[in-house]
Amino acid sequence: MEQLTWSPLLLETGIVTESNQNRTQEIPADNSGAQTTAASPFANQSFLLMMVLFLLVLYFFMIRPQSKKQKETQRMLASLEKGDRVMTSSGIFGVVDTVKETSFILKLNDNVKVEFAKYAVTQVLEKKNPAPQPEPRKSIFSGFRKKKAETEVQTEKSGTVSRDIEK
Questions:
Q1: CA-to-CA distance for 52 and 60, rounded, in angstroms?
Q2: How far apart are alpha carbons 113 and 116 in whole angstroms?
Q3: Per-residue pLDDT tens over the stretch 45-58
Q4: How confident is the model at residue 167 (pLDDT cuts 50, 70, 90)?
Q5: Which residues of 78-112 are buried (b: 16+ CB within 10 A; e: fewer)?
Q6: CA distances (Å), 151 to each of 73, 163, 164, 165, 167, in order?
Q7: Phi/psi of residue 3, each to 5°?
Q8: Is the pLDDT reported for residue 88 higher than 60?
Q9: Which of 47, 102, 130, 164 has the fewest CB neighbours in a 10 Å radius?
Q10: Left (φ > 0), alpha (ψ -120 to 50) or beta: where does 14 sit?
């Protein structure tokens, strides 16, 4: 076994104090006494998998909803028209009188008009000319329900009402 003594350089830098100078440390020459732990071959892969899962969760719970909300707000601001009733971020309610490129004039009553930046609108309460709503998606069974409802209406008009009771 080799013996290791403290070098004068370690004493000068202050890493080793003089009380430790007389002590020696025995280091085994061969590594037979050292315990080596072999790393799992899947350790790096599991770390990468956890990072990918973390990023996916971050995307679906934070980034994606925020971008959807931002796009919805941009659509709302782009669709502002004269006559729309809106609420601003400061809580002022009014009717849009004039729409400019980056601002709009809000009519609070007959004599008061105030100019606001477009991004100050937080909510459109009423649209003057509401856009037509898209027709809801139909399911496979929507035609069946309609026929059944029409049959009940026809039987009620004729005076005879027949309903099946399921047990």
A1: 12
A2: 10
A3: 888 899 999 999 99
A4: very low
A5: eebeeebebbbeeeeebbbeebeeeebbbbeeeee
A6: 45, 11, 13, 16, 21
A7: -115, 135
A8: yes
A9: 164
A10: left
For position 148, what pLDDT does the model report? 57
Range from 75-89, 130-144, 153-167 that averages highest in pLDDT = 75-89
- Report the mean per-residue pLDDT for the chain: 75
pLDDT higher than 90, residue 115:
yes
DSSP assigned state of 98: E
- Tell me what the mean pLDDT of segment 92-111 comes to: 91
117: alpha, beta or left? (left if phi > 0; alpha if psi -120 to 50): beta
Beta-strand relationship, 103-107 and 113-117: antiparallel
The DSSP annotation for 100-149 comes to: -SSEEEEE-SSS-EEEEEGGGEEEEEE-SSPPPPPPPPP-TTHHHHHHHH
- List Cβ neighbours of 116 (8 Å cut-off, separation of 6 or more): 88, 103, 104, 105, 106
Q: Report the C-alpha gap between 118 and 105 in whole angstroms.
A: 9
Which 8-state DSSP code applies to residue 93? E
